[in-house]
Specification:
- The complex is a heterodimer of chains A (309) and B (213).
- Chain A is mostly helical.
- Chain A has a single domain, classed as ABC transporter transmembrane region fold (Up-down Bundle), CATH 1.20.1560.
- In chain A, helix 9 packs antiparallel against helix 10.
- Chain A is elongated and about 90 Å long.
- The two termini of chain A are 14 Å apart.
- In chain B, the strands form two sheets. In chain B, strands 5-6-7-3-8-9 form a six-stranded mixed sheet, sandwiched between helices. Chain B has a three-stranded antiparallel sheet with strand order 2-1-4, with helices on one face.
- In chain B, helix 6 packs parallel to helix 7.
- By secondary structure, chain B is α/β, with parallel strands linked by helices.
- Helices cover 30% and strands 27% of the residues of chain B.
- Chain B has one domain: P-loop containing nucleotide triphosphate hydrolases (Rossmann fold, 3-Layer(aba) Sandwich), CATH 3.40.50.300.
- In chain B, a hairpin with a 2-residue loop joins strand 8 and strand 9.
- The chains are: A mainly alpha (309), B alpha/beta (213).
- At the A-B interface, helix 6, helix 7 and helix 8 of A face strand 5 of B.
Amino acid sequence: MTLLKKLLHKRIGLVLLSLVFSITNVAVSLWWNSQVSIIINIINEGNNVPGNLIIKSLITVLAGMAAAYITALCSSWTAETLMHELRMGYARHLTALSLAEIEELNAGRQLSMLQNELGDISDFLRSNLFMIADDIIRFAVTLSWMLWLNPGLTLLANLPTVILVCYTTLTSRIISKTAIKSQEANGQMNAFADILITLFPIIKLFEANSLIKEKYNLALEKWEKANILEERKRATLMSLAAWMSCFPLLLLFMAGGMQVIKGQITIGSLYIFINLSGNVSGIMNNMPGRIALFRRFAANLKRIESFVS
Amino acid sequence: MSIHIENLSYAFGDRQIIRDISLHIEAGERIGIIGASGSGKSTLMKLMAGLYSPQSGFIEVCGAKRPEEIRKNVAMVMQNPMLFPASIKENITCGHPVSDELIWQACEAARLTEWIASLPQKLDSFVGERGSKVSGGQAQRIAIARAIAKAAPVILLDEATSALDADTAGAVLAALESLTKGKTVISISHRLETLTGCNRIYQLEGGKLVVYI
């Protein structure tokens, strides 16, 4: 993670700007929900919705659109900048190597690193890094607001998520270990491209084609098994997490419904809790996948750390 | 075991490397070829090994003219040992069925027996990628054992000791003696002192072979 910290530190301004826009986006979204809650309560009482409230809501919608657009733009720009820094760091490292050090490098592995590890890191930075940051911000801000609105209902509906978080932490470590093995097997397989080029004279002279083919097939089998194991483990562990994530919404309907019937909360307030449940328990539902992606990203970063200056 | 080269020419694109070379080597002869870096020594060696096809003229090794047939009669030891990422045994046999007795004989001739016997995995010891788990001298001797195991009548040595220091070159030279005994040998080097024991020495200059000694 040293490499990620270095990258973020280099572009700290852009990173902070993206986070600020993300927080603004969430705040606008929560404000929109409170507007809708008020409208639902007015309609439920059998009254007409005042014109100024509709205008306020429309302005909130437009502000939400602008906030979402600016957030997406800023985070994409920041991600591309981080990726550029990473690639330049890799190039700087290679150009600073001595001839003896370069000769020691396996061209197949370096190509594999460029295509696979750097490619995966690029995809993650572009598609997931700021999405995860956004999820964390959304979760924290929404949970805080819901606790302020109705702490009892919030805690009851989200207690199962605590168990889910513990579960996802454990499973992400398991998935990460299998991901590392899969990447190592991938690197070994790609190293054969270099072997074929550099050892071509000896392979031809000593008719070692079948030996190389046998070794390659072994590496291919190892990669295949490692990949299948990683996918199988991820599918098993994530599907269990998905099943567990249904409980918060069910509890919300049961407990919240009872409170509406007893007149303890309005139907508009229940709407907020239902609509924003995705920001809390929904994010938890996606967390196993996100954390597994992050761990794979961290494993890729670790593999290239020594090759980036 | 004889080699016959007639009017051999070879070029890389517009650059003519070998110009109209003719040479006859009798069975059991030892020939040395010297030349400056970039003079075409390795290209000539690869043509003689059947790794390249002549663009004009022909090469005949032990009666074979086609490159795939020439390769069967030739074993080569290069400056870089070029080991496979496999065990010592697999590097010597190259995946072919060779008896353990023959493998140990090749190891004995290449002065490897004592070292291999000291390893926990013996012949199944992994040499690492590009021979990273063995020393330069050990890697070169494994390459020599590989050439011995092939039992080819023609041996090509492409600067086989250039990359070694004085201490390790001694063991490798002893192993090379075992390899080249009774065979037709062509050695190339950029240093004359490494070609002692050759019946004839040629110099490759401007793509042409000139008798040196």
